[in-house]
Amino acid sequence: MKIEKASHISQPVPLSTCTLIDTYPGHQGSMNNKEVELYGGAITTVVPPGFIDASTLREVPDTQEVYVNSRRDEEEFEDGLATNESIIVDLLETVDKGDLKEAWQFHVEDLTELNGTTKWEALQEDTVQQGTKFTGLVMEVANKWGKPDLAQTVVIGVALIRLTQFDTDVVISINVPLTKEEASQASNKELPARCHAVYQLLQEMVRKFHVVDTSLFA
């Protein structure tokens, strides 16, 4: 598979931080998440129940795996998620940055630029495994369909998994469009419970990320 090159984007903006609680109240964690095969079974990780493979609905680039939330309002799940989150796994060329955090920031800038903005702030940052895995939670105001009058506050969980032996950066992003009430709460550095649940999901996806077939990178 031909790995895509990450876009060259602007200088990182200043960051501010917000402390997350360790556990989302009532969150059942990994007991409900299901293992999925990505890229024809070459990679495995987990996704929550009720998320479906977007390639069954529309065309998805070869380097991406996309899962969308198909839950209905009347359905009950114990993981803290709602009905409008989406998950993207993307295989990109390794970016030439000084350290893993800088590379993570580069990929975050790339994501936010695609959403029509260059302004974002980090709410949480964690090194999961020194030199190879970094996760974070960021907030941005995205211009929906490129229209500023349709701007929406979005929280994104972003993970970078560096596969040095394959010159590949795996970027996992979980998009969380906030309601007006949630956006107001987040602007006061009080993250909605859903954001905590998303960050726990992101970290579990990283922990359970496994390369099964290395020929994917040939």
From TrEMBL:
InterPro entries given for it?
Mog1 (IPR007681), Mog1/PsbP_a/b/a-sand (IPR016123)
List this protein's GO terms for biological process.
Answer: protein import into nucleus
Q: Which SUPFAM superfamilies match?
A: Mog1p/PsbP-like
User: What are the GO cellular component annotations?
Assistant: nucleus
Q: Where is the signal peptide?
A: none
Superkingdom to which the source organism belongs:
Eukaryota
Keywords in alphabetical order: Protein transport, Transport
* An MF annotation (GO) of this entry: guanyl-nucleotide exchange factor activity
Q: Does the keyword Metal-binding apply?
A: no
- Identify the Pfam families for this entry: Mog1 (PF04603)
Q: Which family does it belong to?
A: Belongs to the MOG1 family.
Alphabetized PANTHER family for the sequence:
RAN GUANINE NUCLEOTIDE RELEASE FACTOR
* Name by which UniProt lists this protein: Multicopy suppressor of ts gsp1
> What is the native source organism of this protein?
Saccharomyces cerevisiae (strain YJM789)
